[in-house]
Amino acid sequence: MNIISAKELLSKTVSTLSRSALLYTGIVLATVFFLIIASTMMKFIDITLGADSLVYAIVGFCLSVFFYFILFLDSFAVILSLHQGKTSIRDFPPLYKHAFNSWKKILGLVALAIAWVIVLGLGYALLVIPGIVLTVWFFLTPIIFVIEDVSIFKAFMKSKEYARGHWGKIAWRLLSLLLVNLSLFLIVILVAVIEASFKIFAGYPYFLVTVTVLTLWLFWVYIICPIFVIIFGYYLYESLKKVK
User: Fold this and answer.
1) What span, in angstroms and rounded, lies between the C-alpha atoms of 233 and 155?
2) Which of the residues 51, 65, 93, 152 has an alpha carbon 20 to 30 A from that of 243?
3) Nearest-CA neighbor of 161 among 64, 90, 243, 218?
């Protein structure tokens, strides 16, 4: 039994994104809402106490930590939605509540991500090739950790086990994912640059132009791209699990 093709993986990913667009919008809006509140708080502290104050530094650090926690919470919620077959916006409140109540698991996911970055970083530091090998082996680690409720070490080992005998096929599918994401990223940047050019021509302040480009870039890097990768990885995980 063959694993799912790269074309079918991408097709199912796009289909899921469109079918569950409102649900994922709800998850994304929770993050955006936090960013608005955090930005407002930092601006208020900047005006009242100054950006060089100790309070500004402490609050900024705490908000940054909480922001990344929410990003992991969002990822956890997306994986749960895929595993439980949730696609409607009506599923958002119980889904997000479940994710938030699983904060210990999310902290574990954070620890896993740190370990994942260290392992892959060491691999890429060793002349790149080991990094590519490790990426294919451990790509499914976060999804396995959430769905199969195993330890961090076990998740790494199971990901490698799922990849055994399919390394080349998985590598090709991850390459297709990378190429699609790069293409979409370039389109996002191109749109941002074109919009920025029109705004400069229209006499908008340079600050507003910069904010527009930066906002689009951050929205893609921190929100859209991770969701796309998670959905792609989930269907790859499902396919590999079936053939095992």
Assistant:
1) 14
2) 152
3) 243
Which pLDDT does position 25 carry in this prediction? 84
pTM: 0.85
Q: Please state, as a whole number, how many other Cβ atoms lie within 10 Å of the Cβ of residue 228.
A: 20
Q: How far apart are CA 117 and CA 135, in angstroms?
A: 10
CA distance from start to end of the chain: 9
How far is Cα 75 from Cα 142, in angstroms, rounded to an integer?
10
pLDDT at position 159:
94
HEC assignment per residue over the chain: CCCCCHHHHHHHHHHHHHHCHHHHHHHHHHHHHHHHHHHHHHHHHHHHCCCCCHHHHHHHHHHHHHHHHHHHHHHHHHHHHHHHCCCCHHHHHHHHHHHHHCHHHHHHHHHHHHHHHHHHHHHHHCCCHHHHHHHHHHCCHHHHHHHCCCCHHHHHHHHHHHHCCCHHHHHHHHHHHHHHHHHHHHHHHHHHHHHHHHHHHCCCCHHHHHHHHHHHHHHHHHHHHHHHHHHHHHHHHHHHHHHC
Cβ neighbours of 99 (radius 10 Å): 24
pLDDT along the chain (244 residues), means of 10: 87 91 84 83 86 87 88 90 88 86 89 91 84 92 92 94 92 92 80 70 61 66 83 94 83
